Amino acid sequence: MSESGKSDQQDHENMLTVMAFFACGTLIYNGFSLFITAAQDILAGTYIQSSMVLIACILPSFVFTLIAPYFVQKISYFARFITVGLALLCGLLILALAEQVYWKLIGLGIASVGYSMSEMTVLGLTSFYREVALTAFSAGTGVGYVITPFYYTALTTWACVSPQIAIVIMAVVSLLIPACYYIMDKKHVKPPSPSSEKHAGVEYTALDANKEYECEELDSQRDDKNNSRDYHLSVQEKFAVIWKMLPDLITIYIAWFSEYLVYVSIVTTLAFPNAPFSTRDHYQYYIFTLTGGEAVGRSYLVILSYIKAEWAEKAKIPCLWGLAIIQVFHLLFFILAVWYRFLPSVWIILLLSFSCGAGVGVFYVNAVAVFKVKFEGPEKEFAMGYLIVAIIAGELAAALLGLYIEPVLREHCTMILNNTGLCFTRSHSSYRLSSSCHVDNSYRVEIPS
């Protein structure tokens, strides 16, 4: 192959590989989005706090992502993707087919570990490829975030399909994640050393012992840098990377805490009597618009790069603190809107849900870009996988606080409104496999013992 041909191969990723990273992002965030979108149906017929779904989803994956970076690099990528596929299939089938709420939550926890492992694995894998792989993955996460709310809302609200059937379909689709790995170029698998071919025909001269030792030392140091994929960080080095990441990790925590508290504990208590859809459907539309905004936010750099490459570079926002503060303002406004009920129409909430999602989407794509530039070699691989810890920590904190916030907001609503049915965006009877549309005007609720 000519030198120009080799250069082109190095400058461009295989299109199938780029598509595989995009598909991985889409499929992984299909799952995360599904858990939130289906939260009210998972807990239908109970007054269990909505954030229990998030806790069951986040707590197992948080523990996993907290400890996994210290050992997961020793496991082959093939083994990781097979484990991901099995965990997702088992977890989603339990979630869909179990009748007791606690079994649904167990299945959700198993699936969430699978999705977290897959995101950590794919983010680490991007360190072996050019930036287009990471960009494709980020764009895919945005698409995944919006596809599932649309899919779930369309099936369960418009087509009257059972939530259980919708989740079973997702279980089968999740097996495409290992398939995506299969079609990628395996750049992380080190090829045979070309040194023997490279130096063939070169005449060697003897060196004295001291010079030979110095040359070996220099070669060893150079190899450690150039072949960093074979080098594993020590525990002390990993803590050093985390310390360097800490300011940005705090902003990630704040942004995700604000977003998740909004839609697992605040908008769940806000419905409007003049809305053109039922009380239960309010939540589906809130999630649909929020994730739609997040899809736009996560994809904006890709869109700009296709219009003009220079625009994408100029549109990057390295100041993550500013983006985090915007999310805090969204959170405060939603709290005031629910407490004082001063908004006249559901359309204003839907617009704000879209802007909240767009803000966190923009935050995500800029956060991964910051870490991509800040670190190199094995540090980059570790950092790209570890940023998910801050995301999950923010989500978990929001879920724990939501156990207290949602009942308080719901009780306050029942004290100031005559129509208490507007205080909870949840169906009041458990769904069944044969259920169709969620038309339920009764308010009989199964109180868990």
From TrEMBL:
Keywords: Lysosome, Membrane, Transmembrane, Transmembrane helix, Transport
Location(s) in or outside the cell: Endomembrane system; Lysosome membrane
Membrane topology: Multi-pass membrane protein
Taxonomic placement: Eukaryota, Metazoa, Cnidaria, Anthozoa, Hexacorallia
The keyword Nucleus is annotated on this UniProt entry: no
InterPro entries: Battenin_disease_Cln3 (IPR003492), MFS_trans_sf (IPR036259)
TM helices/strands, residue ranges: 16-39, 51-72, 77-96, 102-125, 132-152, 164-184, 252-273, 285-307, 319-340, 346-371, 383-405
PANTHER family, per the entry: BATTENIN
Source species: Porites lobata
Superkingdom of this protein's organism: Eukaryota
Family statement: Belongs to the battenin family.
Protein name: Battenin
Entry annotated with the keyword Ribonucleoprotein: no
Principal subcellular localisation of the protein: membrane
